[in-house]
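Hi everyone,

Forwarding the result from last night's run.
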Amino acid sequence: MENVVELINVSKKFKGFSIKNIDLHVKQGFVTGFIGANGAGKSTTIKMMMNLLRPDAGEVKLFGLDYQTNEKDIKERIGFVYDSNVFFEGLNLKDIKRIVAPAYRRWDDTLFHQYVEKFELPLNKSIKTFSKGMQMKASLAIALSHHAELIIMDEPTAGLDPIFRRELLGLLQELMLDGTRTIFFSTHITTDLDRIADYIAFIQRGELVFSKSIHDVTEDYALVKGRIDLLDRDTEKAFVHVHRAPTGFEALTDNTTEVKEIFGDTVVMERASLEDIMYYFKGGIHHV
């Protein structure tokens, strides 16, 4: 099984917003970062992956199975880590374990206690006393304790302090070492993904702009800087979007080879970060 998640031509319409014809494949054994501005459609897409929302059109498959006939089997194999507390605030971790454990055939008590210890989580304190970072760790401990093969994280680092964010990313890297897990990680904080992602899927205004390996993103996209007089109707076609300033232009390209052919040494090309890519796509309409 190469793809753990397959969204095939999936659409979902709401008043004033829609997800349009998304084709997204999440590869087994890798970290896929799902990027886009707030309101771009990340959470809606995740809800369809989790069967919390049904698509109006298209097909959603996890582990090669569909939800219609295999919902329980699929959910056994998924761990979901929210960006906020989803447990009853008055409960402690021991109570939550007692409620959650029977729902999973592969629940592993020993593993649960190992993660509780590793994450330094108190078993007897109510969840409402936990910091946001601790709540995140509690969600992760529960997901890992039933041997989830796919861990879906919706904006997990939003609102965390920089030290804990770095700690969480280190933890996720550790989890990936044995090669059996897949992580799907949605975020608008793109710097997190520069450190851990193998693949990037980018959604904007309900449409998937691209889904490719981080290596290909680095190879294909670049920031180009040069003199204004180099721009005309033809040369601008090499760019996703151009930003003009009195001192010259800065633009994003998704075709570095074409830029080299057109401009030669008259421009400067630099690596585009994921943040640069999101910024320039928001500024203009993609010409392809």
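The chain has ten helices and 14 strands.

Cheers,
N.
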